[in-house]
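Q: Hi! Curious about what Glutathione peroxidase homolog BsaA looks like structurally. Here's the sequence.
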Amino acid sequence: MATIYDFNVQKTSGERFPLYHYEGKPVLIVNTASKCKFTSQFDDLQKLYEQYREQGVEVLGFPCNQFGEQEPGSHQEAAEFCQINYGVKFPVFAKIEVNGDHAHPLFDYLKKAAPFKGFEDHMNAKLLKLMITEKAPEWLLGDAIKWNFTKFLIDRQGNVVRRFEPTDSIEAIRVGIDSLLQ
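A: Let's find out. The predicted structure is below.
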């Protein structure tokens, strides 16, 4: 059975990077964008990284331009934006696609391992669903990533434990990480 350790990603430098380097560590994988309504989540992600890094938890950012063209710059510009504007110290990799024919195989695996289960029932979720309906209705179907800042929590064995939608609370993610560390 596959795990995230079976995949390689690309650093912003273009260098291939095998994810088996994170073997034995809980990992939070996030598709990001610098011009998104949810971009402020970089603050919370960095705080999670700082809180849990000494316990081995890694946060991995993957910029994506598929949702409203909210990550238009280069690989390097995306990573620099995170560092300059949000003090991000966790790894930010090269831009990728997360849906469609050119989706990165890692994200195809993540979507199959943790299918979409719906949005939390609050105003942000309703607004997001309206925005997706207007700008990218094709992403509403099936297990597609619905928008930027979808997150996948991975256990120490490289298995997907849970999918968090952009509107899920940072507290829910914290609870998920805590459960992996027990």
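A: A fun detail: Helices lie at 41-52, 75-86, 105-113, 123-135, 170-181.
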